[in-house]
Amino acid sequence: MLTIGELASCAGVTVRAVRHYHAKGLLPEPERDHSGYRRYDAGAVIELVRIRTLAEAGVPLSRVRELLQADERGFAAAVADIDERLRAEIRQRQRHRERIARLASGDALVLPPEVVEILDVLRAHGVDERIVQVERDGWILLAAHSPERIPEWAARKKEQLADPPLIDFYRTLGQALDRSDDDAELIELADKLAVHITRIADERNEAYVGDTDVAPPFAELMDALAFDTAPPARRLIELLRTRGWTGWTKLERVTPAPPLP
User: Fold this and answer.
1) In this structure, are residues 116 and 145 in contact, taking their beta carbons and an 8 Å threshold?
2) What SS3 class is residue 239?
3) What pTM, to 2 d.p., does this model score?
4) Max CA separation in the chain (angstroms)
């Protein structure tokens, strides 16, 4: 006859595991001997080995009793059911791993590849990361609003980014983030941007520079996001209005407003 420690050692488990199986009703508890100790026979070792084997195979303890008591046909059916459950868990874990991999990829988690490429171009040209964030967040909203138009808009954006003055605009805007509203550099930036927009609009058309085809409330939402992330952008739009353009998400040609004080 074996003590609980000897039983655990023979079956390759811990004493704590034996007690846990007792508490779950999987392994019967023998009566105590005259010294107050529980003694186990060879049958208990065999039963404990079966329990351990099933548990290590991934069988939930809630179903171990069922399998221990099942006949050959019932055992096979229960094992097949458990196997399918484990396969489903594996598939779910694989999906989790794929999502974790996407998380590690940063922008690619929430944006299509053609937009990620645009952000990479901006970073490669040394554009301030805060400006890249404004661009990224705007694309996230656009992708949620009109996913079917993202390829068209992204192609247009990549074509525009091939124009050095636009890259220069992005870099200068990044430098302006730490400037005050009346900083001469911000005013100079507005001049440069107005010239650039006007040239593109004259060469192409106004729709080319401003057609995002989104409803005004959504455009206002995107503008607010940009202004919150990069406050100088709001001042820049005010300066642009005096130069014949207005809007951030949706640029429009307007009658130049009186010069700002």
Assistant:
1) no
2) helix
3) 0.50
4) 105
